[in-house]
Recover the amino acids of this structure.
């Protein structure tokens, strides 16, 4: 009996431990991570993995003699991955060949540049022709070189009165199709510095508007002396944390400095999409603005809002923001609706200690950890791919196919609101309003439900107009007749009474 | 014989009840005259007041549960009906009490019964409008939200106005005094709430003291 009890205890202990294993290893042996979304009630809803780790690239994978040291940024052009290995004053060029990652070049010298060595490069950009732009922070310049690394030109500190910062420390850059360079520089809070293709300074764009509350304004204007005012911290706009450019030339910027209060009312705008004159045109049609986590894990050392370090824009304006606070990736569609969120902090595969940069190759995500010095490659699962496909089909106008894809998504995750809305929209196009209403109702989509309901109501009224008229007529005529009869009765009674009275 | 007599008495009572319920129509459309007669001419009845309060509660719950989700989305999975009822009834009773208690300081003429009755009668427009609205919400679409909002707004503003008139007429106040008294009443209600909290926290402390005393004794004895 005793041994039986022991066996049972061990078995029970094992069963109890199972869920904690299940969280990290799936049936097919791939590493999985906690993936979730928010429902209408803003509760976290677990969902199947949209992404799984395909591979982790270490310094040793690439056969580097000196391992990576504080790499700050990633850039991907076609099958080439560029890593700004800031601590080693170099840029690594890695080519993806099938499943293999091969180190093709170590860029530490630009031929013909003065000085020719890179010092602490922090970001780079490569255009379609292979022309490379590098933020050479230590040399206070942005260098532009052709694909064989011959010096073409450099963008240096703007010689302009509006640029009043001492040193010019470019940290992130993007280049648009016509060769204009937009850069973020440390200690510059006027927005992005814009250069024309010929290297001339073209001003600042997209500065964060200064925000202050009414109370602050009143306090500052009426209750402080001049001397006090001079001592106070000035209201200054904050700096962006990173920028990315999409295919249409819009710049996505992330902002990690804001007060928590502003986040709730969407004044902080941690993710922005800037047009050519620097206005934020990000679409926000979700119940929540794109702000990352809404629960900040109270009583944890990681307490606090999501602070996005980098952003990348995939197909169909789906963007993925990389959060430093909890090492999570948040995918939003073009309407600003959260598709999925996953990732966590930690030291095992697929987790991050120092989230630094994110890029994409097709639908694969490449995430750089600056403390772990690793690049993690995430590959979409079937489920993740279905979401991409359905979005794509809908935007192309293949509504029926999109609905079929969404149905497949629902089979994998019956709690996915976007799928219900997608199917509902397709049903509405097929003029099946009643069914569409059902789907919209399940997703709590009031606006679309209202639209479907209006058509449904119209259909019903038009179909039964005969009955409605009949019922209305009866309702109007019957009281009339009753009144008539009553009147007649009363007249008869009156007549008889008069007769009797006589 | 006695049975017959009781029946006859019940009949008159019932008729009186029906008359007092019907009188609500006069009160909500002619509040100044209506509230005066309600308490001074004994046109209202407590039973009618209870009925209106119950109807108000039922409407409140039905509205949460059966309004079309386009207009109200209550997290039904989290809603506890008893909690909802208590969240209406408790403040209502506390406000009645604070109003009655403070009316002595403000030369009010109303008895507690009158105050309760008048406030219940003032709730009538709320359920008269909100109950049909629950049905209407299933017949209109999201774009017609404005109509819904206007009606829902009226169903709140009207009773608030009635409460104000009720205070004036029950206590025989001028309008200015009634407004001041309205705020004082709310303040008084907060004070009562605070006292209740203090009382219960002290009570639980006292109880905890005796429980620990008992445990100590039991521990020593064994």
């Amino acid at each position: 009996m005793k041994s039986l009890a022991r066996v049972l205890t061990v078995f029970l202990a094992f069963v109890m431990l199972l869920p904690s294993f299940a969280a990290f290893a799936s049936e097919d042996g791939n590493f999985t991570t906690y993936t979730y979304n928010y429902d209408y009630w803003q509760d976290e809803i677990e969902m199947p993995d949209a992404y799984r780790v395909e591979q982790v690239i270490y310094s040793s994978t690439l056969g580097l003699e000196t391992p990576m040291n504080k790499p700050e940024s990633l850039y991907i052009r076609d099958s080439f991955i560029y890593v700004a290995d800031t601590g080693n004053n170099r840029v690594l060029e890695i080519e993806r060949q099938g499943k293999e990652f091969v180190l093709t070049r170590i860029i530490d010298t630009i031929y013909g540049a003065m000085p020719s060595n890179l010092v602490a490069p922090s970001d780079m950009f490569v255009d379609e022709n292979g022309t490379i732009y590098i933020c050479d922070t230590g040399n206070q310049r942005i260098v532009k070189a052709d694909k064989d690394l011959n010096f073409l030109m450099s963008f240096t500190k703007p010689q302009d009165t509006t640029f009043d910062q001492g040193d010019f420390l470019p940290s992130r850059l993007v280049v648009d199709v016509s060769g204009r360079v937009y850069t973020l520089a440390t200690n510059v809070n006027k927005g992005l510095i814009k250069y024309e293709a010929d290297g001339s300074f073209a001003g600042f764009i997209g500065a964060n508007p200064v925000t202050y509350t009414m109370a602050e304004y009143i306090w500052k204007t009426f209750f402080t002396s001049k001397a006090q005012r001079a001592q106070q911290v000035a209201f200054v706009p904050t700096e962006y944390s990173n920028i990315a450019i999409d295919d249409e030339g819009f710049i996505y910027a992330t902002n990690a400095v804001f007060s928590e209060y502003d986040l709730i009312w969407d004044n902080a705008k941690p993710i922005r999409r800037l047009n050519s004159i620097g206005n934020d045109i990000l679409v926000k049609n979700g119940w929540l603005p794109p702000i990352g986590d809404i629960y900040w894990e109270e009583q944890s050392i990681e307490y606090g809002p999501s602070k996005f370090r980098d952003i990348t824009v995939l197909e169909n304006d789906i963007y993925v923001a990389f959060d430093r606070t909890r090492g999570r990736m948040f995918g939003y569609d073009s309407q600003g609706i959260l598709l999925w969120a996953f990732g966590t902090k930690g030291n095992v595969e697929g987790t991050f200690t120092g989230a630094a940069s994110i890029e994409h190759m097709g639908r694969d995500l490449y995430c750089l950890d600056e403390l772990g010095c690793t690049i993690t490659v995430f590959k979409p699962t079937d489920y993740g791919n279905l979401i991409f496909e359905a979005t794509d089909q809908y935007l192309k106008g293949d509504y029926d196919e999109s609905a079929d894809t969404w149905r497949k998504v629902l089979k994998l995750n019956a709690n996915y609101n976007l799928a219900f809305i997608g199917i509902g929209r397709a049903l509405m196009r097929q003029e099946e309003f009643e069914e569409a209403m059902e789907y919209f109702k399940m997703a709590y989509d009031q606006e679309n439900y209202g639209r479907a309901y209006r058509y449904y109501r119209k259909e019903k009224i038009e179909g039964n107009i005969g009955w409605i008229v009949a019922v209305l007529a009866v309702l109007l005529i019957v009281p009339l007749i009753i009144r008539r009869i009553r009147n007649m009765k009363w007249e008869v009674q009156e007549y008889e009474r008069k007769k009797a009275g006589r | 014989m006695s049975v017959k007599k009781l029946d006859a008495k019940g009949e008159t009572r019932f008729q009186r009840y029906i008359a007092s319920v019907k009188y609500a129509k006069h009160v909500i459309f002619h509040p100044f005259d209506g509230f005066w007669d309600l308490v001074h001419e004994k046109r209202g009845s407590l039973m009618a007041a209870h009925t209106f309060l119950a109807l108000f509660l039922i409407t409140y719950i039905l509205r949460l549960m059966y309004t079309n989700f386009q207009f109200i989305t209550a997290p039904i999975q989290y809603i506890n009906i008893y909690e909802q009822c208590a969240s209406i009834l408790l403040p209502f009773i506390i406000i009645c009490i604070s109003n009655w208690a403070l009316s002595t300081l403000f030369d009010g003429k109303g008895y507690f019964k009158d105050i309760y009755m008048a406030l219940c009668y003032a709730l009538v427009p709320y359920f008269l409008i909100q109950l049909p609205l629950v049905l209407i919400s299933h017949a209109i679409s999201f774009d017609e939200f404005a109509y819904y909002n206007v009606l829902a707004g009226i169903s709140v503003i009207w009773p608030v106005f009635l409460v104000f008139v009720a205070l004036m007429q029950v206590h025989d106040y001028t309008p200015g005094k009634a407004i001041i008294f309205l705020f004082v009443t709310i303040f008084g209600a907060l004070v009562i709430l605070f006292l209740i909290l203090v009382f219960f926290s002290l009570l639980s402390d006292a109880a905890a003291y005796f429980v620990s005393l008992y445990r100590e004794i039991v521990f020593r004895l064994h």
Summary: The longest helix of chain B spans residues 175-221. Chain B touches chain A through eight residues (CB under 8 Å). Confidence is low (pLDDT under 50) at residues 1-7 of chain B.
